[in-house]
């Protein structure tokens, strides 16, 4: 199903109000380690990083 202009605009509006992009610089070798670890558990590198952040937030809340 093609991406419609209406869908594009709705996505753009949602992202403008709900999403904050956070650039993350890391050494290529470190990123490769993250990517491999994520793949080993069936996740994307992005999902793996987000999970690590939220896991730490939960641990530090205690």
Task: Characterise this structure.
The chain contains three helices and no strands. The chain has 62 residues and is an all-alpha fold. It has a domain of 39 residues. The radius of gyration is 16 Å and the shape is extended.
Helix content: over 70%
User: How many β-strand stretches?
Assistant: 0
Distance between the termini: 46 Å
How would a crystallographer describe the biggest sheet? none
Structural class, please?
mainly alpha
Low-confidence stretches: none
Radius of gyration over C-alpha positions, nearest whole angstrom? 16 Å
Shape: extended
Count of DSSP H/I helices? 3
Oligomeric description of these chains: single chain
**Mean of all residue-level pLDDT scores:** 94
How much β-strand is present in the residues? under 5%
Features of the shown structure:
62 residues; 71% helix; extended
SSE order and pairing:
Layout (H helix, E strand, L loop, with lengths): L4 H14 L9 H13 L4 H17 L1
Helix pairs in contact: 2-3
Describe what is shown at a glance.
Helices cover 71% and strands 0% of the residues.
């Amino acid at each position: 199903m093609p991406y419609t202009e209406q869908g594009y605009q709705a996505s753009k509006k949602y992202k403008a109000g709900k999403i904050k992009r956070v650039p993350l610089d890391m050494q290529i070798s470190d990123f490769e380690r993250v990517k491999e670890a994520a793949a080993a558990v069936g996740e994307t590198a992005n999902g793996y990083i987000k999970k690590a952040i939220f896991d730490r937030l939960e641990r530090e809340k205690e």
